[in-house]
Amino acid sequence: MRRTERKMTDRNDVLQVLRDAQELYIALNTGGAPYVVPVNFVLAGEDIYFHCATEGRKLELLHSDPRIGFTAAVDIWVDKTTTRYRSVCGEGRAEFVTDDAERMKILKAFAARFKAPCHFPVSPEKMAITAIIRIRMESLTGKYSHPDEGQRPMPHYER
Predict the structure, then answer these.
(1) pLDDT of the chain along its 159 residues, tens only?
(2) Measured between alpha carbons, how far is 51 from 94 in angstroms, rounded to an integer?
(3) In terms of C-beta density within 10 A (0-12 exposed, 13-18 middle, 19 or more buried), how is residue 143 classed?
């Protein structure tokens, strides 16, 4: 990180960016150019979870190479000529969650986070077409820029 004075040093501040972010951008290995896609996600402990269909390019790439890069940013606004933000970047390994109890727990966490009017328990038919992927974080860094450089990151910016 070039601007080391902007590095978040408190792990709780870094994890708070993930709690506040609405979407996570994941980068997957195609063997050529990276494939980047936004996903809805939840943070449970220090693991990130996302869900998707049980087939498609994202899953094909994860089956061939579970390494994953990710990033999220919040509180983005322009102050005169400077962009203000809080952001995180990280790397990890994707794992497919197969335990039904854990899958249901994560789906409930999604419903709570996004205030979704989901019905539980999820039907076996819906569970069969839903993949749940855990990202076990191996590295995580945070950075911020705000008017009071050197202070803790600003509170959540309302758009």
Answers:
(1) 666 767 788 899 999 999 999 999 999 999 999 999 999 999 999 999 999 999 999 999 999 999 999 999 998 888 778 888 899 999 999 999 999 999 999 999 999 999 988 888 888 999 999 999 999 999 999 998 876 644 444 444 443
(2) 12
(3) buried
List, as one string, the DSSP characters of 86-132.
EEEEEEEEEEE---HHHHHHHHHHHHHHTT----SSPPHHHHHTEEE
**Rounded Cα–Cα distance for residues 109 and 81 (Å):** 39
Q: What are phi and psi of 134, to 5 degrees?
A: -100, 135
